[in-house]
Design brief:
This protein is of the alpha/beta class. The chain contains 18 helices and 18 strands. The radius of gyration is 23 Å and the shape is globular. The relative contact order is 0.15. Bound molecules: zinc ion. Zinc ion binds at residues 123, 125, 187, 304, 359, 411. The site of zinc ion (ZN) has 6 residues, from loops.
């Protein structure tokens, strides 16, 4: 990130006067001009579907003025702006005529394009990127997850060399950058630090969700136990993130006592939160504890919800292909299914409100849609992952019309062809009539609504004070949005 550019210093003990020249680090203004800018600023979170579907305000021939800390001045900056459209903070959004009165601010004219906020991919598993093309698709969830476990589980014979993982991760970050991704919400269990480094190299922000999974959790004494609201719940991923990054907050557990008390504090990475894997795979007490922790620490809680028919069958009856799989690996002795559909069960556990990001939400009946929308939980749609695994299609339009706040995610490369969120929007647009969403709604899901779902007030719209993370509107959407002359 530009804000993190550091001065190079000579190596200690090697002083060669006259040979070392310091690069110039400057805080300065630069500007980009576009024929059209869709800022989406000032719209605010709204539960009214008319606000979601209405044409966005389009500013003709505007300039976005950006303040940033830049290395070696404008000569290095403008090519970076054109290549990546990332970095700095927005100083102003103004008509070209007004900008002409600013003297000495270098301007990059992007030409006949439409500038929008950088896109926000709300659900990825980037640490699975090396599994692209290696899982079983098209046969439903259980065959898919079995193939995933055969590649990642204990004793998996097909271990991928670290260099291949790193290379797949770097490719994934490049894919995200190529479609002007500003930020991702990434579920992590085993390699959060590697994910963070790959994204930082591509100037992409990340909300890390360290995933809580399973029915048995180690206590500080090492004994497996039902989870309580203690460090026993804490995923290893969070500790790894902290160890790798110097940007650390330390926050206490409000119910566990003051900082330094027993069971607390939990050191917290500023961009990290907890996720629960799913209702069928994870102890309900652990899910509720993770949710409460997120609430107390002002973080979004995320979980997979109502993704596939096997989940509904398992939770309502305790039977089916998922039950057989879980019995071998996950479920404790004497486990009894709750006998409820996923959405009411999640609501009963206290997992659904404005602070929750529920991912997939495919298997919903009319009552589920109402309950989900009334809860205020954000819903992340992943239509291409759902199609690839063959678990059905989320009732996107009905959710939108009920007032559920929606956003988009690609899911991982283990269940999708690429990480281009625009392709996700195209897939949603092509869903059968009654499920699809109009382009104006998709534009908001891709940007402002995604930022809101991840609790990020610093991105998602083009407005003074926000991060200058910008994207270009693809031509096919420009036409559909009516933004071309
Ligand atoms: Zn997922």
């Amino acid at each position: 990130m530009w804000a993190c550019v550091q001065r190079r210093a000579p190596a200690p003990g090697i002083a060669v006067p006259g040979l070392y020249t310091q690069p110039t680090v400057q805080t300065m203004l630069i500007a980009v001009r576009a024929r059209r800018v869709i800022p989406l600023a000032g719209e605010g979170p709204s539960r009214d579907p008319r606000d979601l579907f209405s044409p966005p305000r389009v500013l003709d021939d505007h300039v976005v003025v950006i303040r940033g800390v830049f290395l070696d001045g404008a000569a290095r900056v403008l090519p970076l702006v054109l290549a990546g459209l990332r970095g700095g903070v927005i100083e102003a959004v103004e008509p070209m005529d007004a900008f002409r009165r600013r003297a000495g601010v270098p301007l990059a004219d992007l030409g006949d394009v439409t500038l929008i906020p950088g896109v926000v991919n709300c659900h990825t598993h980037l640490e699975l990127s090396h599994l692209a093309g290696r899982t079983v698709l098209g046969g439903g969830f259980v065959p898919w997850v079995k193939s995933l476990l055969s590649l990642t589980g204990a004793g998996a014979g097909a271990e991928t060399p670290p260099e291949a993982r790193a290379s797949a991760l770097a490719d994934a970050a490049r894919q995200l950058a190529a479609c002007h991704t500003a930020h991702v919400g990434d579920i992590t269990a085993v390699a959060p630090a590697a994910v963070r480094r790959a994204l930082q190299a591509a100037s992409i922000g990340c909300s890390h969700f360290a995933e809580v999974f399973g029915y048995r959790f180690a206590t500080p004494g090492g004994e497996p136990a039902a989870p309580a609201d203690t460090a026993a719940l804490w995923p290893q991923a969070m500790a790894e993130l902290l160890a790798d990054d110097v940007m650390v907050d330390v926050e206490g557990d409000a119910e566990g006592g003051a900082k330094g008390g027993p069971g607390a504090p939990f050191p917290v990475h500023p961009d990290a939160a907890l996720a629960g894997h799913a209702l069928y795979s994870t102890h309900p007490v652990a899910l509720a504890a993770a949710r409460r922790w997120c609430e107390r620490n002002h973080r979004v809680f995320s979980m997979h919800l109502a993704e596939h028919p096997d989940e509904v069958e398992f939770l309502t009856t305790g039977r089916g292909a998922l039950a057989d799989l879980l019995a071998v690996r996950v479920l404790p002795p004497g486990f009894a299914a709750p006998g409820m559909r996923p959405v009411p069960y999640a609501a009963e556990l206290g997992l659904l409100d404005e602070g929750t990001l529920a991912v997939h939400c495919v298997q919903l009946d009319a009552a589920d849609i109402r309950l989900l929308a009334e809860s205020g939980a954000h819903v992340c749609l992943c239509p291409r992952s759902n199609a690839a695994i063959d678990v059905g299609a989320a009732p996107a339009r009905a959710l939108a019309e009920a007032g559920a706040p929606l956003c988009l995610g690609t899911d991982s490369l283990a269940s999708n062809h690429d990480l281009d969120l625009w392709n996700e929007a195209r897939a949603l647009r092509n869903l059968p009539a009654g499920h699809d969403l109009p382009p104006a709604a998709l534009l908001r899901l891709l940007t402002a609504r995604g930022a809101s779902a991840l609790g990020r007030g610093d991105i998602g719209v083009i407005a003074p004070g926000r991060r200058a993370r910008l994207a270009l509107l693809p031509q096919d959407f420009s036409e559909a949005l009516g933004t071309t002359p």
